[in-house]
Amino acid sequence: MAGKIKNNKHLINAPAGSGKTTYIRNELKSICLNNPESRILCITYTNRAADELKKNLEGANITVSTIHSYINDLISPFYSHKEVLDLYWEIYAEKIKNRIKNVTNDENIKKSNQYYIEKYGELTEKAVQENISELSYGETPFTSLYTGKLSHDDLLMFANKLIKRYPILLRKIGDKYNYIFIDEYQDTSAYVLDIFYDAVENRENIQIYLFGDRMQQIYKNYDGSFEERLKKFDTSDQLGTNFRSIGKIVSILNNIYNDALFKQYSTENNIDVVPDIMPQVIISSNTQECIYELQKEFPEILTLYLMNKEKYQEIGAQNLYNAYENMEKYSFGRKYSPTDILSDMSSDNPDILMKFLFLLNNIMSFYANENYGMVISLCKKESKYFDSSQFKIKKHTDKQRIKSKFDKIQAEYEKEGCLIRDIVECLFANGFIPEAVKNDFEESTEYQSVLDIKVIEVKNLARYLNMPHISTQHGVKGESHSSVIFMASDNNSTPNVRMYPFFELWSNLEFSLPQFETLFYSYNRMIEKVEAELGMKISELTAETHNKSEKNKAILVRYSNEVLEKYQGNILFDALCKDDFISYLAKQNVGNAKKIFKITKMEGILTAYKLFYVGCSRARKNLIVVVDAYKVNRFKEAFMNKMKEIGFSVFCK
């Protein structure tokens, strides 16, 4: 691969089980061996992936980094430059002005504004601008407008705008590296892909490789705006061997993908392996009882559940879910959903408070089990949250001091009715967390409702997520398992998953992921154009703004005719959207208007398609899909035929 020069931009499709990490590591070793002077940059999506790739590859000429760490390192030397501060103000001045005025009359913003006045004496646009002398990356999902602390998303957006204004910054990439590897490109923001594309364009001395699989795109980082540029990448190299699953499951995965360009092949060792139970779909009138019986019969089987509001209620973490669902940053249609935040116990959780609470629960569990070595080790390691100076042990009295303080924290943590706010205060009072960390939590308007939730909900959630044979479908890119149950579920809030509408569509139509994504991205851009011209969301239309506004009605009629002309005949559009547009043009009222130019159903079906594929791909040997008989009753025969056609046996219980 490294020797090909016909195009310096390469896209390597790497489906589930294709050994992508091993392949990338071998390529990096090969370059180092054959071109020892080459300088290599390897960008990953998560800390876990970065750590995995770094194994045995530490060297002066290889840089392995997460996306956010690299972008922050790239632009942070300029955070205090006047031109950079001016750009910040140019982008955020209007938002800062509205926040100062508290135009939404938000009580939390009112408290935050009062805190600023107490700290700085006054709160005006001029005061905020004068007090921001340097930007920073806050490693949080929320940009702190008054302090210039950029969020995860805004860091990438800001870097993109900064580099487009000052393209000389691209030379920091182009002059430094000969090879650039970007892992999980499908989850990489178009802002970042644009930066690297521009850095290597017309530079023959740099080769860039994107690795990933569109079917595993479960985060909303990518918006489809890089599609035209993706077409310019060389796609001749692909990872076509599935090292994970036996032949029968690989065949099912190929049939679900339904695209000859992305067909996988089993290894010789796996191709003829006979499963303990043939891949099967069980249509059950009582899915929970069905799963319970399967778990009794196969105690080691992994059950994949979709985390939805009902599941959090069952677990005993409903208030925690509600608090995150009500945050604007995690609301319907945003990049991260409450489930993304509440089901990720790793260091890659993008929410600083939830990441801290999972970490703290882990530490307190070690302490309760008298594993003091792990407690000290974790507190020292996580210096972003904990004051590591408090955990230095030079003499026996240091151990006594730490234990005495931890006893107080444990007493608070175990106290009935203890709030998250209480445990944060207790940790601060005992010197374990610095004031800056406490302020990050307590000064955030978004976190006020979370801080008032009982700690028991965090414990309940962590206990569920740690169950050995339970996994969340939203965490589908986890490790493989010998035997898997996929529980088919819908969720019409966040995450938006329409599994049964997907099954119905899929049972009656032949389509592939590229077909669906091409329509999805194009149709989504059309909606953005319509809403920009209207000056409002379609969902915000009222009788006043539609029926009595000839201008708005004319916009919708014009775009409706344009949509029908452009998409009519596309089997997916015809099945999902066509009738609503015909109805609106026949009867132009606000009710029919709200049914057109909607992306939620299409998005939910596309998400379900991906979740179903990746959920099935986690099985190495045995795979069972459990579906609700009531929900497939209307299209049961077509569904059964479809499942048999792709390789499942079907049973009704």
UniProtKB/TrEMBL annotation:
<dbReference type="InterPro" id="IPR000212">
    <property type="entry name" value="DNA_helicase_UvrD/REP"/>
</dbReference>
<dbReference type="InterPro" id="IPR027417">
    <property type="entry name" value="P-loop_NTPase"/>
</dbReference>
<keyword id="KW-0378">Hydrolase</keyword>
<dbReference type="GO" id="GO:0043138">
    <property type="term" value="F:3'-5' DNA helicase activity"/>
</dbReference>
<keyword id="KW-0347">Helicase</keyword>
<keyword id="KW-0547">Nucleotide-binding</keyword>
<feature type="domain" description="UvrD-like helicase ATP-binding">
    <location>
        <begin position="1"/>
        <end position="246"/>
    </location>
</feature>
<dbReference type="InterPro" id="IPR014016">
    <property type="entry name" value="UvrD-like_ATP-bd"/>
</dbReference>
<dbReference type="Pfam" id="PF00580">
    <property type="entry name" value="UvrD-helicase"/>
</dbReference>
<dbReference type="GO" id="GO:0003677">
    <property type="term" value="F:DNA binding"/>
</dbReference>
<dbReference type="GO" id="GO:0000725">
    <property type="term" value="P:recombinational repair"/>
</dbReference>
<keyword id="KW-0067">ATP-binding</keyword>
<protein>
    <recommendedName>
        <fullName>UvrD-like helicase ATP-binding domain-containing protein</fullName>
    </recommendedName>
</protein>
<feature type="binding site">
    <location>
        <begin position="14"/>
        <end position="21"/>
    </location>
    <ligand>
        <name>ATP</name>
    </ligand>
</feature>
<dbReference type="GO" id="GO:0005524">
    <property type="term" value="F:ATP binding"/>
</dbReference>
<dbReference type="GO" id="GO:0016787">
    <property type="term" value="F:hydrolase activity"/>
</dbReference>
